[in-house]
């Protein structure tokens, strides 16, 4: 079925989009089921990026659809300040139960960006509550993506996202990024070289004095900048340094959470436990906006001092723990559990790795990276025209029936965790054909 393109495309200012180019040749999605979108011109395209790294259980999942319907008919909204509804407690308990012991308390938000702002604020306020108000510095990492609000932008390390917005937050510094293709290109799984990049934190500690540093925030796998995997031993070293110097470690698991790496969270996949974790996206299977911060017992308890009738943390959102989002999240966790999706990675990871690495040697392919059910194919940029080759791949893939995501000159892949081997094989075959036709 063909759905007509709206006659007036002008008013809608699209996010992270080449608006003028898009509006000349719109790509509209009008339906979605399991692994496939239906386009406005009536085609089926495979969703190879789980919507936007969020639809981990695939589209149109009956439990989630039904839970939302039921909840909206029962109670549409409940204020979250000095009030609550029963299900949000259940969700917090179940979510905390997915994490290693010690990560025990959940603060709800509505997006990854809000989760990051919340985690940074919790880190600062916790140090203050513990009698260390001098810890005000926040450390991010080059090439990091932590959303688009001012805190996340400040600790983020993607130049294009930052440069239009002035000085951002004061007291922020950045670790060097961990991408080292000269030593690690075509690694299968975690790259062998680069654990020592974590020692860059020692440089910042020496420069600023550790007693001024509140927190280090990193994506365990940097997603938006092109799927940069942590070198073997890197996160362990970062953890040890943070612990030694009383600095909180924040894992931004907005992309890595909910099964993407073949384990429930990166903290399990890599065996490193941070003090705070940010999540969003897969929490509701992308269906309703919701995010959360999971905090350690120690951090949470630092706030629970003083008179019991006072508000402990002056922070929250109108939609924190919204009943519809909560219903969607509970049904999502049920779906993940029933289908074993949070731990499905090992079943598919070997096949995924072999299939992706078979693309080595095709024109312009300069690196292939993979872990769990995430992958990246990095292309040699066209001289003087960075990103253009990958954009070409995106457009050709869409015509060929695959919705892929590109960032810089990297094709990032994160299919829904319900994909079967045949689906992955079809995707990689399709990509091979596209790669052979790129300029
Ligand atoms: C690691 C990470 N943090 C934060 C965000 C921001 O999430 P949102 O777009 O929901 O604000 C993203 C989004 O892709 C992300 O990948």
TrEMBL record:
Pfam families named in the record: Aminotran_3 (PF00202)
Cofactors, names only? pyridoxal 5'-phosphate
Q: Please verify whether the record's keywords include Transferase.
A: yes
Instruction: Report the superkingdom from the record.
Output: Bacteria
Enumerate the CDD domains for this protein. Answer: OAT_like
Question: What biological-process terms (Gene Ontology) are attached?
Answer: biotin biosynthetic process
| Swiss-Prot/TrEMBL keywords | Aminotransferase, Pyridoxal phosphate, Transferase
Q: Name one GO molecular function term.
A: adenosylmethionine-8-amino-7-oxononanoate transaminase activity
Q: What family is this protein classified in? A: Belongs to the class-III pyridoxal-phosphate-dependent aminotransferase family.
Name of the protein in question: Aspartate aminotransferase family protein
Q: From which organism does this entry originate?
A: Pararhodospirillum oryzae
């Amino acid at each position: 079925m063909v759905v007509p393109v709206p006659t007036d495309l002008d008013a809608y200012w699209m996010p992270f989009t080449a608006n003028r180019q898009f509006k000349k040749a719109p790509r509209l999605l009008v339906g979605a089921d399991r692994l496939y979108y239906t386009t406005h011109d009536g085609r089926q395209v495979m969703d190879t990026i789980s919507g936007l790294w969020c639809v981990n259980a695939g589209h149109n999942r009956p439990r989630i659809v039904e839970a939302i319907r039921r909840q909206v008919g029962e109670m549409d909204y409940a204020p979250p300040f000095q009030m609550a509804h029963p299900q949000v407690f259940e969700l917090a308990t179940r979510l905390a139960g997915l994490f290693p012991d010690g990560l025990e308390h959940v603060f709800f938000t509505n997006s990854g960006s809000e989760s990051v702002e919340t985690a940074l604020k919790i880190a600062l306020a916790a140090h203050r509550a513990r009698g260390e108000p001098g810890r005000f510095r926040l450390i991010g990492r080059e090439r990091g993506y932590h959303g688009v609000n001012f805190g996340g932008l400040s600790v983020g390390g993607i130049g294009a996202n930052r440069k239009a917005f002035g000085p951002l937050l004061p007291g922020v510094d950045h670790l060097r990024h961990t991408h080292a293709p000269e030593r690690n290109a075509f690694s299968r799984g975690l790259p062998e070289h680069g654990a020592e990049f974590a020692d860059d934190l020692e440089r910042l500690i020496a420069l600023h004095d550790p007693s001024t540093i509140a927190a280090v925030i990193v994506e365990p796998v940097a997603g938006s900048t092109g799927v940069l995997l942590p070198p073997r031993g890197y996160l362990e070293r970062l953890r040890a340094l943070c612990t030694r110097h009383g600095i909180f470690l924040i894992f931004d698991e907005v992309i890595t959470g909910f099964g993407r790496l073949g384990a429930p969270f990166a903290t399990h996949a890599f065996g490193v436990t941070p003090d705070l974790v940010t999540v969003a996206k897969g929490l509701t299977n992308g269906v309703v906006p919701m995010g959360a911060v999971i905090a350690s017992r120690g951090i949470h308890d630092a706030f629970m001092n003083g008179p019991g009738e006072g508000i402990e943390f002056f922070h929250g959102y109108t939609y924190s723990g919204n009943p519809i989002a909560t219903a969607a999240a509970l049904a999502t966790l049920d779906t993940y559990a029933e289908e074993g999706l949070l731990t499905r990675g090992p079943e598919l990871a070997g096949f995924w790795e072999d299939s992706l690495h078979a693309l080595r040697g095709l024109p312009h392919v300069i690196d292939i990276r993979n872990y769990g059910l995430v992958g990246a194919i990095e292309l040699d940029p066209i001289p003087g025209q960075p990103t253009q080759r990958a954009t070409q791949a995106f457009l050709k893939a869409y015509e060929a029936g695959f919705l892929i995501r590109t960032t810089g000159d990297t094709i990032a892949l994160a299919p829904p965790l319900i994909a079967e081997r045949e689906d992955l094989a079809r995707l990689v075959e399709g990509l091979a054909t596209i790669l052979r036709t790129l300029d």
